[in-house]
Write a structure and sequence with these properties.
The strands form two sheets. Strands 3-2-1-4-6-5 form a six-stranded mixed sheet, sandwiched between helices. Strands 8-7-9-10 form a four-stranded antiparallel sheet, with no helix packed on it. By secondary structure, the chain is an alpha/beta fold. 39% of the residues are buried. It contains nine helices and ten strands. Helix 3 links the parallel strand 2 and strand 3.
Length: 302
């Protein structure tokens, strides 16, 4: 009598596919958040495995801050078209013009402005569920999330009032105006993501691999940021052309560049195995405060 054992990646994949199918069964109007980043690339593969040969039964949704890397947007648009998916993009710039998002005087980052833009899109299309690629290992606030994370009628999250998840049973009940955020990759790590990308031979945007780029170190210390039209470089700031890659992608004004020779997925996996800095340690927007992410999430941030 033979037995069949799943390896680590197979177990994570099976768990995530189960969550995906639960969403399709329980919700009327779900959406899948797709930025073109490595985590959402894995989500698309899982959706294919969960629902093919049928079409993926949900549109792809992205909130574009206007500060995205061009390489990321090109990949996002092309990949959605290759899968025959419906891509919905809602821009922070349009939300500002419509009075939905209101920037504070001197505010450069658009992280906060993604919140009303996202909530307006959820209301516009009456989505009752949004699937995202957040993982618990990323940082402290995301470690508090469940697979099914309830949002109230204002789109807000209360980390102290979450529903129990026992024996892979999920309470998906929502009232009108409420919605659920669902995170199939909750138990994955950064290493798991890259090993899955290698196993599935998934294409990722070129900026994940080493390339030559003009970078600036603000005030001569801290992380290297990519030089762009959105970042003011002062005479005292240090500017160099470096061989770098991104480890986690956010706005171009807040994504720290990592000096790296990694030219393949195998190189990246070896680099992660030896890393002593967390994945989001290179994100300037997370460093402002330990509670920054949790505060944004309570307001409706993904």
């Amino acid at each position: 009598m033979s037995s069949y054992h799943l390896d680590h990646l197979q177990y994570l994949e099976t768990e995530a596919i189960h969550v995906m199918r639960e969403v399709a069964a329980e919700f009327e109007r779900p959406a899948l958040m797709f930025s073109g980043g490595k985590d959402s690339i894995c989500l698309l593969r899982l959706a294919e495995k969960a629902f093919r040969p049928s079409d993926i039964p949900m549109p792809f949704l992205n909130v574009d801050t206007g500060h995205h890397f061009p390489e990321l947007n090109e990949f996002r648009d092309r990949r959605a078209a290759e899968l025959g998916g419906r891509l919905i993009v809602r821009k922070v710039e349009d939300a500002i013009k419509a009075g939905i998002a209101v920037p504070s005087p001197g505010e450069v980052s658009r992280n906060r402005l993604q919140i009303p833009t996202l909530l307006a899109a959820i209301e516009e299309f009456q989505f009752d569920c949004a699937i995202g690629g957040a993982r618990r290992d990323e940082e402290k606030a995301r470690a508090k999330e469940r697979f099914f994370s309830f949002r109230d009628a204002f789109g807000q999250w209360d980390p102290k009032n979450q529903r129990p998840e026992i024996w892979n049973l999920y309470n998906a009940r929502v009232n009108a105006g409420e919605h659920m955020r669902v995170f199939p990759l909750s138990n994955w790590t950064e290493m798991d993501v890259w090993e899955y990308i290698r196993r599935e031979k998934l294409e990722v945007p070129s900026i994940y691999f080493s390339h030559r780029r003009q970078c600036v170190r603000i005030g001569g210390r801290g992380q290297w940021l990519p030089v762009s039209e959105f970042l003011t470089v002062r005479p005292k700031d240090e500017v160099q052309e470096l061989i770098v890659r991104v480890r986690t992608i956010g706005d171009i004004i807040s994504t720290g560049m990592v000096e790296s020779p990694a030219e393949s997925v195998d190189d990246i996996i070896r680099e992660i195995a030896a890393a002593r800095v967390t994945e989001r340690g290179s994100r300037a927007d997370d460093k402002a405060s330990e509670a920054a992410m949790e505060d944004r999430k309570k307001q409706g941030y993904f």
